[in-house]
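Ops channel
N.P.: pipeline sanity check, posting one input/output pair.
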């Protein structure tokens, strides 16, 4: 206990020193938001449109899209509609959003000492990870620009909105905006991938015959990791509902780590007693936890759209580099895999619960029932009253003699 207290003290001192040094010497800088640059060949074009791009976007609602027939025509039509809605909303907010007077900065306001303490430690790390993911997205988008689906969309896009510097900037800003939305989901995917490896290590590190204990540790680790994830999300997004979810998940994780029950005794009153979860309970809780996580992913897939993409869509688009088209086929495959996996896991859970129900035999209660039924028979009454003062061996021999034999029971 003393060693653990010493380690906790050292960690607290190190975090405090690190927070002060970072707050005093380092000023956090957000990453470069320009992930996709306009095409140079179009940006240098001297062709000018008689109307501004905002007017063309606004008037395009009264026109039908005329798209060259190809294998990407339907996908291109949906992508152009999404881009047009996005551009219209931004032009309504700021007619000069394509050419802002100053670079857009995300200001961080610290409301408490805890907020300032965590911001000094985590801000630079978060911005570094954002810049690393942005570099990855630049590479994937650049690779996609050399493929036929992008060339088909680009031809349709310039055919509808005109080919000049503003349209090239609009297309680049749209892809950059979608790529920025994908940064946090990618970081979350990396976070859960690392924690998944830790969970497997925790499960296989325990004793081979202690499946319930290992499963309980993995469950506690999962809920505590979910609480940590919500805490970081609440800090980044500054939302109280996410913080409440973090508190609830943390409470569930702490209970699974050290489960207790409330007991009442005549001498001691109300007490908290440490308990150990049995295998059926751990199996059922594992099934509930996995089901909740899969339900969240399926809800994202079902409710997301191209105009308001869900995290699954953004992660898929990040790896393909295509932030223009909706990866509907990939999402359908993910949905099928989730449904198939959940069905198999449910069948396995029911099999484990039924097997545990057959093997769940309370030996202590059954033994006490046998003893009560025997002590109420004549065999126990025939034992001499002085037997309690006899040696243990003599009492055992007399007890065996008093047991009813098979012949006497038949008679």
């Amino acid at each position: 206990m003393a060693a653990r207290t010493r380690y906790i003290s050292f960690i607290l001192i190190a975090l405090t020193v690190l927070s002060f040094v970072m707050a005093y010497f380092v000023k956090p800088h957000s990453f470069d938001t320009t992930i996709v640059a306009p095409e140079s060949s179009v940006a240098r074009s001297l062709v000018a449109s008689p109307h501004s791009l905002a007017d063309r976007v606004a008037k395009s609602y009264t026109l039908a899209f005329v798209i060259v027939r190809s294998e990407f025509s339907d996908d291109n039509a949906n992508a152009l509609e999404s881009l047009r809605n996005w551009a219209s909303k931004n032009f309504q907010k700021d007619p000069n959003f394509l050419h802002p007077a100053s670079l857009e900065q995300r200001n961080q306001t610290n409301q408490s000492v805890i907020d300032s303490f965590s911001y000094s430690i985590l801000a630079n790390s978060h911005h570094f990870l954002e810049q690393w993911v942005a570099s990855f997205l630049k590479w994937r988008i650049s690779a996609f620009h050399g493929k036929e689906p992008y060339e088909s969309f680009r031809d349709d896009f310039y055919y509808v909105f005109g080919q000049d510097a503003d349209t090239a900037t609009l297309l680049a800003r749209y892809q950059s905006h979608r790529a920025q939305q994908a940064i946090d989901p990618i970081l979350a995917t990396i976070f859960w991938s690392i924690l998944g490896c830790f969970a497997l290590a925790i499960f296989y590190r325990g004793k081979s015959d202690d499946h319930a204990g290992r499963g309980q540790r993995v469950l506690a680790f999962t809920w505590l990791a979910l609480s940590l994830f919500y805490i970081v999300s609440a800090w980044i997004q500054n939302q109280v509902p996410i913080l409440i979810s973090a508190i609830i998940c943390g409470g569930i994780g702490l209970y699974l780590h050290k489960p207790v029950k409330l007991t009442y005794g005549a001498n001691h009153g109300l007490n908290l007693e440490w308990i150990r979860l049995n295998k059926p309970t751990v199996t059922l809780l594992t099934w509930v936890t996995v089901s909740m996580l899969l339900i969240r992913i399926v809800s994202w897939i079902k409710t997301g759209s191209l105009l308001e993409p869900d995290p699954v869509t953004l992660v898929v688009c990040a790896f393909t580099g295509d932030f223009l088209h909706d990866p509907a086929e990939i999402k359908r495959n993910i949905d099928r895999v989730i449904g198939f996996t959940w069905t198999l896991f449910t069948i396995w859970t029911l099999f484990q619960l039924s097997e545990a129900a057959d093997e769940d035999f309370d030996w202590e209660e059954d033994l006490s029932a046998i003893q009560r039924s025997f002590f109420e028979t004549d065999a126990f009454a025939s034992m001499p009253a002085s037997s309690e003062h006899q040696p243990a061996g003599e009492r055992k021999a007399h007890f065996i003699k008093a047991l009813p034999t098979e012949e006497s029971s038949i008679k």
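N.P.: looks fine end to end. DSSP finds 16 helices and two strands in the chain.
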